[in-house]
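Appendix C: a fully annotated inverse folding record. The material below is reproduced so that readers can follow the format used throughout the book. The structure is listed first as tokens, followed by the designed sequence.
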């Protein structure tokens, strides 16, 4: 390898902070902190989406858990909404043989009833 190729490798700069990279020839960043910062910036939008969805699920879960203290409770839609429940976010569904659909946020579930009432249920998850 000519001296130009060797000089190019020796004078490599960190794409995150611009510092000189010292170490292996294939090293791309000057430190773990710069590598992490660079990758976090690249993935920011996707991570924010996942973080926001997880926060929404967590909030829904806490609401169901707070209201359903006896593993089976009836509550109005208005009360759920007043507490900030968002019906768009759930982790799964259970459909009975008769076609009834229970919606779940992990082990806390709800079943829409007549006249804007909901039956809250808790199920033991088998992991």
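Designed amino acids, in order:
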């Amino acid at each position: 390898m000519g001296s130009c190729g060797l000089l190019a490798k020796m004078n490599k700069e960190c794409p995150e902070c611009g510092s000189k990279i010292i170490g292996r020839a294939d090293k791309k960043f000057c430190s773990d902190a710069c590598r992490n910062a660079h990758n976090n910036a690249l993935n920011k939008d996707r991570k924010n989406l996942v973080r926001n969805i997880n926060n929404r699920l967590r909030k829904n879960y806490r609401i169901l858990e707070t209201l359903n203290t006896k593993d089976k409770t009836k509550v109005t839609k208005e009360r759920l909404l007043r507490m900030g429940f968002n019906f768009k976010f759930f982790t799964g569904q259970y459909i009975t043989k008769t076609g009834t659909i229970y919606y779940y946020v992990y082990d806390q579930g709800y079943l829409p009833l007549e006249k804007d009432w909901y039956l809250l249920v808790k199920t033991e998850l088998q992991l």
